[in-house]
Amino acid sequence: MEPVLWFAVAVLGALAVGLALALSRARRERAAAELDLAAAQRAAEQQALSAQWRQAQLRALQAAQLDAVLVISADRTVLDLNAPAHTLFGASAGLGRTLILVTRSVELDDLVTHCLEGGADCDRQIMLGRARQPYRARAVLAGDPLRAGDPLGAVLWLQDLSELQRLGRARRDFVANISHELRTPITSIRLLVDTLRGPVAHDPAARDDLLEKIAIETEALAQLSQELLDLAQIESGQTLFKLVPTALADLVTGVTDRLGPQAQRKRQRLDVLLPPGLAVLADVAQLQRALGNLVHNAIKFTPPEGAITLRATAADGDVTVEVEDTGPGIAPDDIGRVFERFFRADRARTAGGTGLGLAIAKHVVEAHGGRIWVASGGGPGHGAVFRFTLPLAVLPPVSASTNLVPPLTSP
After folding, report:
1. Cβ pair 385, 376 in contact under 8 A
2. Multiple choice CATH, 244-393, 3.90.1570.10, 2.40.50.140, 3.30.360.10, 3.30.565.10
3. What is the pLDDT of residue 148?
4. How confident is the model over 277-326, as pLDDT tens digits?
5. Per-domain residue ranges of the chain
6. 405 DSSP assignment
7. N or C: which end of the chain has fewer CB within 10 A?
8. Nearest-CA neighbor of 242 among 292, 281, 288?
9. 10 Å Cβ neighbour count for 123?
10. What span, in angstroms and rounded, lies between the C-alpha atoms of 299 and 306?
């Protein structure tokens, strides 16, 4: 073969080898690029999933939050808000609107501006809503960790304080009421003891009279402490109620036998009108206490020669029990408060009592799954009617053998 031809063949071979190497390198680079692209795509997908997960977490936190929460941008535009915030601000609560247009509150706008400017004390009490209820407003700065001092926005948290303030008032009222209830018998006992220390101590009749009055005041204190304990146990759920089918007539008889003498001393008529065979699911001891409180109130506020009527009706699986009196009635303004602890209308202040009886009756009835309410004409002679419901029950059949008296046997 000619040298030129050999040279040409060698060159072509070298070129083929070089081309093959180049193609192989190109394939490797393309494969590496494809791997890098796939890795970048996976990383991007992972970042997107992470962002979605963080967004879902934020949504879940907002949905679980019972207080109103708003996300505010650096220019005080509302970027997001949860359902309680929608409820609080109504139709004006739209995304992309300025904070002052959404909340209609200059105080909130000033608070968020103060927070975005890096100010301290971003926690205030503000009146909001149509009812002008008190809210605790707290703004928290949301900044970029890579750019200190450059805020992205703020989160505004609004807590309704009306229930807390109501509980605070209830606590203060309770302390004031219990102080009043304790002061009266304690003052009476102190005065009676001071009198006993004087010359009257040498008069047996006067001394016994004073000791009897001290015993009465002491009993009033004991009753107050017991009813407070009972009410606390019932409200906390520590009192166990055992509901069993009970003849309503037997339950009512236990109350009227105990309180009937009080009505007789006031020459009052105590009428009981019950359908025969009516039975209820009841804890006998607790329900007799509740019914006894209602009957005792009726006797206490009904004038001499008056009448107290107990009746019951059954309908739709419930039994409605009524205690009606012919007393002075209850003023319309007091109807909604008669079951509150220590609440007593002016007419009751002179009649004694602890002011806890109706509160206990309410809790006992509700523990039976019933409800209790009162109606009154609100004028002299109209009286009041207390009603409560109980679950209707069917008494188990009584075997005839249980009524047999065993014969006497001789030893």
Report:
1. yes
2. 3.30.565.10
3. 56
4. 899 999 998 999 899 999 988 998 899 999 999 999 998 889 999 999 99
5. 62-160, 170-235, 244-393
6. P
7. C
8. 281
9. 13
10. 9
CATH number, domain 170-235: 1.10.287.130
Place of tokens 């590496």: 32
- Residue 318 has φ and ψ, to the nearest 5°, of -125, 155
Task: Enumerate residues 6+ apart whose C-beta is below 8 A from 321.
Answer: 248, 291, 310, 311, 312, 387, 388, 389, 390
User: What gap in Å lies between CA 53 and CA 236, rounded to an integer?
Assistant: 41
Cα separation, 38 vs 32, whole angstroms: 10
Which range, 7-21, 135-149, 328-342, has the best average confidence (pLDDT)?
Answer: 328-342
Rounded Cα–Cα distance for residues 102 and 77 (Å) = 9
Encode pLDDT of 120-179 as tens digits: 888 989 898 777 889 999 998 886 655 555 668 889 999 989 888 887 877 787 777 777
* pLDDT number for residue 200: 80
pTM flag (> 0.70): no
Amino acid identity, position 78: V
Q: Please tell me the distance from the alpha carbon of residue 376 to that of residue 397, in angstroms, as a whole number.
A: 40
Torsion of the alpha carbons at 160, 163, 169 and 170, rounded to the nearest 10: -170
Residue 22, helix vs strand vs coil: helix
CA distance 282 to 247: 9
Q: Rounded to a whole number, what is the largest CA-CA distance in the chain?
A: 162
